[in-house]
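Can't attach files on this board, so I'm pasting raw text. These are the components:
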Amino acid sequence: MPKLIKGVGCPYCGSSCDDIEVLVSDDETKILEVHNACIIGTNLFHHANDPTRPKLPRRRQPDGTMKEIPYDEAIDYMAKTMLAAKKPLIYGFGSTNCEGMSAVARIAEKSGAVLDNCATICHGPSFLAIFDNGYPSCTLGEAKNRADVVVFWGCNPMHAHPRHTSRYSIFPRGYFTQKGAMQRTVLSIDPRETDTAKLADVHLMLDQGHDYELFDAFRTVLRGHDIPDVVAGIPKETIIKSVEIMKNAKFCMIFFGMGCTHTDGRNHNIDAAISLTRDLNEHTKASIMAMRGHYNIAGPGQVWAWQFGFPYCIDLSKGTHAHMNPGETSSVDLAMRDEVDCFVNVGADAGAHFPIQPVQHLKKHPFITVDPNFNMASEISDLHIPVRIAGVDEPGVVYRMDNVPIQFRAVIKGLPGVPSDEELFNKVYERMCELTKTEPIWLAAKEDRRYPESEAVI
Amino acid sequence: MASGEMIVKGGFIIDPTRKIDGDVGDVAIKDGKIVDKVGSSAKVIDAKGKVVMAGAVDVHSHVAGPKVNAGRLMRPEDKFISGFCRSGMAQKNGYRMESGFSIPSVFKTGYDYARMGYTFVMEAAMPPLLAPHTHEEIHDTPIIDEGALPVFANNWFVMDYLRKGEVENTAAYIAWLLKATKGYGVKLVNPGGTAAWAWGLNCLSLNDPVPYFEITPAEIIKGLIEANEFLGLPHSIHLHQNNLGNPGNYPDTIAALKIAEGFKARNKFGRESVMHSTHLQFHSYGGEGWKDFCSKAKEVMDYVNKQKNITIDLGCVTLDETTTMTADGPFEHHLHGLNHLKWTNVDVEMETAAGVVPYIYDKNVTPNAVQWATGLELALYAKDMNRCFITTDHPNAGPFTRYPRVIKWLMSKKAREETIATMKNSDRMIGLTNIHTMDRELTLFEIAQMTRSGPAKCLGLGNVYGGLAPGMNGDVSVFNLNYKDLPKDAEKIETALQRAACFIKGGEVIVKDGEVVSHGHKKTVWVKVAMPENPQVTRDVSQAFTQGTYTVDIRNYPVREYLAPHQSVIDVNVEA
Amino acid sequence: MATVTLKPTKVPELMFEGYSITPDAFAGKTAAQIAELPGHEGKIHMKLGDFFEVSGNAGETAADTDIVIAGDCTRVKYIGARMTAGTVTVNGNADMYVGGWMKGGKIHIKGNMDSFCGIQMEGGELLCDGDAKNHVGCAYRGDWRGMKGGTIRIKGSAGNDIGTFMLGGTIIIEKNAFIHVSTHAEGGTVVIKGDVEGRVGGQMVRGEMYVLGKIKFMMPGYKKVDTVEKEIDGVKATFDHYIGDLGERHPKSKGQVVYANLYLKAAA
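---
Top answer:
Structure tokens for the assembled complex are below.
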């Protein structure tokens, strides 16, 4: 009898929907049907059935081909390579669980590595803005239950976060928003007429790269001062009208995306958005949120903040203290400046997502990929170690875009012999300790880290 | 817990639970517990000429969870100020890296508490929806036993039941939530005010109605005392009052304390209080504005002293650059308006909110100096030191690593006067406070009451923590202080308390000569209430998830077992 | 005065963190002792002697010590960082953090500098004959206490984030700058002698800015109040005087609201 598992978290976008229902085979090895998820989420589950999924590590041979090797050999190679490097870089973690992120930190400390995550090429500028200006935010339920004005600035959830608008932001009927979309005024600020912009009551099609000026104009108007007739291509009247809508809201929710974080000024665009949110709180209630990309990309920011005090770009090479300064200790900068001599890509695809030049620089040195699947990075790696898929055949905690921890479950049994990220990193750590003749430090983790067998089926 | 025997020999023992004040003697430990005696092969720890006390207990500290981490995340400069790294004894002995000053990393938190001889720390505010996060951090914090208090006073269920006068339903909900979050007790933060903050408002007085819920802070406090005593939980309600930090707030404070009048503690854990009023320093101010902002510690303590069913902790200002963080969302917004530093806010659906703002307590700024005096005065006016505990509301009034400095000020008038002498406006401060006229110097016995026996009893943990009687946990801290000849220079007291000569936890040596030598065996302590099922509460809770006021699935809400390793579960049985 | 000369002998494979290259660290030491001073290349503990040939002994104090680096330091970070007195001269390029957190003394870089030069500087003088990359005289991430004093003069151009969170001191860019000048600043003076792309004085509370060239995109929160004659860094001209950022909070001083001032050279 196939089993229907409810309340399953989806391993795709930062919405981290946990209302998915998955029908699995009686022996819990195959996913048969996926309900409630968006098309991308559905496919991610079905990918797990792919018979060609790698089951063994592969090591590049002198002739350039990849050859399957046992896990022990891969673990030994990874431990030795990272210990030998003067400054390894560990990057990724968009698509794994927090248990893995916590485990990798031990390796990073041991090998004097730089620990970075996908935020470095995504919402890293949002972190910089939070450092400088704070983050007046809320959980998504607050937006759902209260927000009557929703602003999408430089983001297009209709494509990037397919169920965001229906679960949290535009359509749902919340406690104080019983009329759903009817009750909400939607503003879109985007240089393109995206599908989200088409849904909006007001679309401000600003000149690309001038978000900062437009935020400043909003703030200037809010303080009762005059502005030029046109700012960033938007007429003064439209700006004044938009500010009035936000100011008169009962609860104004601002979502922002890569349109802000990756145009000129980057962190300053977010910084100004945060200032605007703060200013609005003098008039009404306002909140702001980053549209984080992956289902657990908020995770490394949390885990490493409690372990080292920094969310990303953490240089542990000194051994005595952690150092962080994006621009210096960020992955792409480190690569471009030839500051690292070993690269470990975990649960992400640096091969596809980095610009080509940093990849070329990184390829001068040992290049290791830890990922459940074949991807661009795995195919240019010296070593590819497959692991289980967090949220499909491995449970664990993930952080949704609003930093709400959601305890994901495994819906099927993992491939025999394939470890989780956490198990793999723990083994690499043990090997590093053997090689350096030091005692491993587990704290509470190792002793009591077992997943209840029955957890997968409710 | 370590097996085998150990004896701490020849120290000056201070143990208020047995009224021992400096007698020279031995403490024997077997299989992790204190025993009467051990065999001759027991491992000997020489404590001759040193002070021996139980492991200390912190009743209120923000050490793990979402707002603590929001503070860590938003403050890289807390690790690194003006080019100098504030971190890192670090890996000297092969331990995990340490980071941060006012909001230390989890590793530094565990190590630093252990270095000061602390064995149990209560995380003071856990948002229920984010409880897995709190437990993940507790899980990664070495050595110290920890519990966490979920916040209730702005929770929709609680406000709804109490508006209708349904104490039993409130109690059933508390029981469900404690189990779901692996929480320890009932925390109230700015009752009603934080709920109002979701619309950008606040409840400053006890009688301001909460928008939409039509209930007042006073009714929430009273209802939660009733529910807490109905259940007979180990800890009383733990109250962060309304109107925190504002000039002239002390009448509101006393009014809230008065709500406890007539209630009697009902529990099997030896607790006598029905209300713990936390970081009282922030609630003991007079004046109409910042110009005449003054201490009303005497007025507040006069009430506390005669009202035996109340316990308090100080929340002493340590005059450092620190990070304020509280579930009192509207207060943090207000504070940001005063100092214009960065502001983080997290409103949590259905439950609570939190804010974080960096703050510099500058001894040359008169209101800050007055706050410093107010915290110390509270302790110096206290009559029953078993009901008055040392905290800094870490990190709000200062980091917990300053406890030894607070103790120095409490034990030495000379040390207080030295600090006052360095203040630019010391005369104005003296005019607005009583500290300068107070000669009282607390004894180490009193300090042991305030940091060990008192808080342990108030948490209902007096049978295992806070004393050295046989049967209690084998947690012993040894300090380099000669009880018969305490140093004239109070700085030496601070130094000795900062780094224990030896700290034993569960019969295992954790700290030696001020340095961590073992990670020990930490526990997560939580309270599990067994009571007959309440169908209405079960239905109400499940509807909040299925009808979509929450945005997560109810199946993913309770904290899973593996996130809380080495649980120490306190069972409470409520009969039908 | 005593001069210590460092001659680069080897290019580091990664970057060399030369945090010991300051008159303060050198003071009272012989050439041989200086060669033993620590530095890092990644996680490897190195010595100055691994990358430089050291000649000449240092003076008794930092103030008595001049350091001359006779060659290129493109891959050396932290030159002159945290120094309090004395001088450092580099006859070539330097990497990040030149003169970061410096309190006194003088640094002269004859080539170009990378980012974060003069970060959170408190005093002294930093002169660069070439260009600087980004974050000239800015604050460390998250700190609201940026550059407090001293002078930074870049004879070439600079990138983005000049004087972020600046509280005092002077930054002079003799050629062009890209974006974000004096963002969040609450004091200090920035002079750009060439053109700026935009975002001049955004979220600025107070302080002064002078632009002698053109600003391509003006911040909407700035308002022209008058035209004034002024002399700045040896240039006398007519300036359009703007106040702002009107979108930002502003303190009051003696009953008057204090704004940031932008002086933009008037069109001829």
